[in-house]
Structure formats: structure tokens, C-alpha cells
């Protein structure tokens, strides 16, 4: 078997990895800055909420564009625009003019660019690697979000060494690296140029909704999307609150270490998925690791302990690449390649939609409801408080317990639903990559 397609995929992946690492470091530093300046979980969560809403809004357009135009060009333009937004941030920091509200529009622009980039990347992925290695490639792709989680440890050292301006400058340089790799690496025509068969003459609305029509045509795939949405709703609530939870009993340096440990767990999950490729029946991987994730998440609520979080966070994050990689491989292999960009956009939209709901609910639920209820003398202090404790962060801990139970319930649904149990039996529509198809590679977009 030729490995040309795999090596080209790995090169593009490496460029995106460098870029995402820089962005993750900058995002961590800015997030801590906003939280420490305002003391508000809601304002902290607003950054992630706006990123999610921006991604949802632009996802249908990204899918249509990726199924219409040169996908390499989409990667290049996305990185250029995101680099421009980072340049504005650098100018604000260098001039001493950065304010909290500046963070939000910059986050929106970079989130939109990330959506175009990831839709193009995940659409190209199954067209670059042989189908038998699709699960492994999706496992490797899951290291991209892992880098964002692990970035805080590097952020602490970089912040001390070069300051906020230096961190943002490094982020800007990572875009240059990603752009250089994207332009130089030769890519096969099949992966770069969309198959427009069946799309010519379609209205813009028909193209925007083509991914959802494709999913309705394949029984069970819409259920997979709903499952992903529920998973990201629960995980999003936990994700936006884990840093405020840790900061209630530890400082930023401990937070950075714990975030790194969590990211290491996600890296380990990606490594396992890359080596293993997931189970032959991909829904088995999804439902099994949903249950494991739910248990690990619920146990976060037991005590305000750095050691507890240091064990459970990597255990929870270990499951994410296997859940997401298995689900993405399932979608990529069961839909028409001509609609793949729009289906991938739909998957991102569903995931970000669940995440946005989680982000929107998490801060107000923590600040206005659960934290007061688990304060000393609060409504739940004499009941649930006797189990998980009372005081700062214990209301957030209760949210972790609820989200964990939600993931376990999703695993039960995935096990008992006939549509989800049989979705692996749908015929594959992804044409296996051939040596001839992989041999046709161009060094730059034409």
C-alpha cells in the first residue's frame, strides 16, 4: 500500500497543529486575564459562547464553500484572516489598549476561520487516506483539540518569559508556518477539487441544506448527529466551568498543570485511536466510551482536590478522541463524497450548537442557581452539600455531576435505540483511495 496520501495528510495536520498550539496558548492567557479581572464565570464563559455561536452561524456557508471551491484555498484564506485578527490583538497589547470587550470580536473572527479550516480539513481527510485507515487518521486529527487543552502549561512559562505581547507574537508566527506547509505540500486533485456532479444548477438554499438532505436519506445518521449534539452539550458545560472550578481552590499555576495533564489524557486517547483505529462497529466505540466519560465527569464533583481533578480530567478527556473519531469515521464513510463538506459542516454545527447551549447555560446556572444553593446555609447545603461539600465551587461541582449522568444516559440511548444499533450496517459510500488517485498531487492551488 502506498503511503503518499497518509504522509500528505500528516503534513497538513502538522501545520494545523502548530497553528492551533499558538492559538490555544493565547486563548488560555486571555481567558485567565478576563476571569481574574472580572471574577465572573459568566464573562469568562461568554468568550467560549461567542466562539460557538460564530461557528454555528458560519458552518452552513463553510460546508457549501468547501463543496464548491478549491479546499486548499479555503485553508489558506482562513489562516490569513485569522492571522490578521491576531495582528490586531498584538497591536492592542503592544499599545497598552487591550480591554475585555476587545477579546470578544477577535474570538468571533478566529472561531469563524477555524470553522472553515476544520470543515475543509475533515472533508479532505477521507479523500487523502485509504479507507481502512480512516479511524486512525481521525484519531490523529483529535490531537488538534488536545493541543488547545494542553497549551496552558506552555502558556504559563511563555507568559513569564516573554509576556502577553510575546505570546501573541508567537501565535502570529504559527500561522505563517501553517500557511507555508499548506502551500508547499502536494495534494491529490480528488482531495482538493470538489466533485460538483449533481450540484450544478442547484439553488444556494439547496446547496446550503444538501448535507441535511443527505443525512435524512441515510437512516440512523441523523440520530448520530443528535447523539453528538447531546454529548457536546454536556461536555461543553463541563468544559467552560472546569477552569473556574479549579480556580476556586488553586492558583493559575496549578490550573496550567491540571490543564496540561488533562490534555495529556486527550493525547493518549488520540494515540490509542490512531494505533487502534476504533472498533469495527463504530457505534460500539461511541456508546462504550460515552459511559466511561460520564462516570469520570460525575466523579469530578466529589471534592475540591487538585489530585482528584488530576486523575479524572485525563480519564474523561481520554475518551473524547475515541468518541469523536469513531463518530466522524462513521459519517465520513456513510455519506456521498459530493456532499461530504456540507455533512462535515453539519456535524460541526451540531457539535458547536450543543457546545453553545452548554456555554450559555453553564455560567448563569453556576453564578445564579447552584453556587448560592450550595453556599453555607443554602437550599442544598443540608442534603447534596453533605456529600460534595459547600462553599465556593461546590455548585459548579454539582453541574459536573449532572453532566456526567447525562452522558451515561446518552450511552444507554445509544445501546437501546434500533436506529443507532444498526447504523454501522449502512453501505459505505466512500470510494477507497487508489494508488492512481493518490499519485495525482499538485504542490499548490490552481
UniProtKB/TrEMBL annotation:
Location(s) in or outside the cell: Cell membrane
Lineage summary: Bacteria, Bacillati, Actinomycetota, Actinomycetes, Pseudonocardiales
The keyword rRNA-binding is annotated on this UniProt entry: no
TM annotation in the entry: 12-34, 46-66, 73-94, 106-128, 140-162, 168-187, 221-242, 254-276, 288-309, 395-414
Membrane topology category: Multi-pass membrane protein
Name by which UniProt lists this protein: Major Facilitator Superfamily protein
Keywords: Cell membrane, Membrane, Transmembrane, Transmembrane helix, Transport
A GO MF label: transmembrane transporter activity
One Gene Ontology cellular component: plasma membrane
Protein species of origin: Actinokineospora globicatena
Presence of keyword Transmembrane: yes
InterPro entries for this protein: MFS, MFS_trans_sf
UniProt cross-references to Pfam families, sorted A to Z: MFS_1
Amino acid at each position: 500500500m502506498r503511503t503518499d496520501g497518509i504522509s500528505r495528510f500528516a503534513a497538513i495536520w502538522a501545520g494545523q497543529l502548530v497553528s492551533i498550539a499558538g492559538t490555544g496558548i493565547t486563548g488560555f492567557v486571555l481567558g485567565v486575564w478576563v476571569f481574574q479581572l472580572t471574577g465572573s464565570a459568566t464573562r469568562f464563559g461568554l468568550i467560549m459562547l461567542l466562539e460557538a455561536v460564530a461557528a454555528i452561524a458560519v458552518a452552513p456557508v463553510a460546508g457549501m464553500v468547501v463543496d464548491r471551491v478549491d479546499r486548499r484555498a479555503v485553508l489558506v484564506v482562513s489562516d490569513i484572516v485569522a492571522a490578521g485578527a491576531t495582528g490586531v490583538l498584538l497591536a492592542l497589547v503592544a499599545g497598552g489598549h487591550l480591554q475585555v470587550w476587545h477579546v470578544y470580536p477577535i474570538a468571533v473572527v478566529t472561531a469563524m476561520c477555524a470553522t472553515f479550516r476544520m470543515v475543509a480539513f475533515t472533508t479532505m481527510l477521507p479523500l487523502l487516506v485509504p479507507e481502512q485507515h480512516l479511524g486512525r487518521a481521525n484519531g490523529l486529527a483529535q490531537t488538534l483539540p488536545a493541543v488547545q487543552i494542553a497549551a496552558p502549561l506552555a502558556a504559563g512559562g511563555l507568559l513569564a518569559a516573554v509576556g502577553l505581547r510575546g505570546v501573541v507574537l508567537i501565535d502570529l508566527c504559527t500561522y505563517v508556518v501553517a500557511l507555508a506547509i499548506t502551500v508547499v505540500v502536494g495534494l491529490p486533485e480528488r482531495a482538493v477539487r470538489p466533485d460538483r456532479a449533481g450540484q450544478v444548477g442547484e439553488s444556494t438554499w439547496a446547496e446550503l441544506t444538501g448535507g441535511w438532505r443527505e443525512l435524512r436519506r441515510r437512516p440512523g445518521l441523523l440520530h448520530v448527529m443528535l447523539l453528538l449534539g447531546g454529548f457536546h452539550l454536556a461536555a461543553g458545560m463541563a468544559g467552560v466551568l472546569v477552569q473556574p472550578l479549579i480556580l476556586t481552590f488553586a492558583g493559575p499555576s496549578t490550573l496550567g498543570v491540571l490543564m496540561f495533564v488533562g490534555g495529556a489524557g486527550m493525547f493518549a486517547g488520540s494515540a490509542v485511536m490512531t494505533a487502534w483505529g476504533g472498533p469495527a462497529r463504530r457505534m460500539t466505540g461511541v456508546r462504550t466510551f460515552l459511559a466511561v466519560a460520564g462516570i469520570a465527569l460525575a466523579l469530578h464533583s466529589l471534592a475540591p482536590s487538585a489530585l482528584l481533578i488530576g486523575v479524572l480530567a485525563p480519564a474523561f478527556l481520554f475518551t473524547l478522541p475515541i468518541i469523536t473519531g469513531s463518530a466522524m469515521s462513521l459519517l465520513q464513510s456513510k455519506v456521498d463524497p459530493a456532499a461530504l463538506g456540507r455533512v462535515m459542516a453539519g456535524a460541526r454545527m451540531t457539535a458547536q450548537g450543543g457546545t453553545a447551549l452548554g456555554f450559555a447555560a453553564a455560567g448563569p446556572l453556576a453564578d445564579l442557581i447552584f453556587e448560592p444553593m450550595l453556599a453555607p446555609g443554602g437550599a442544598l447545603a443540608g442534603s447534596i452539600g453533605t456529600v460534595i461539600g459547600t462553599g465556593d465551587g461546590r455548585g459548579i461541582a454539582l453541574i459536573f455531576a449532572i453532566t456526567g449522568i447525562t452522558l451515561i444516559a446518552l450511552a444507554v440511548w445509544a445501546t437501546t435505540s434500533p436506529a443507532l444499533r444498526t447504523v454501522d450496517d449502512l453501505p459505505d459510500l466512500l470510494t477507497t483511495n487508489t494508488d492512481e488517485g493518490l499519485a495525482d498531487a499538485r504542490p499548490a492551488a490552481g
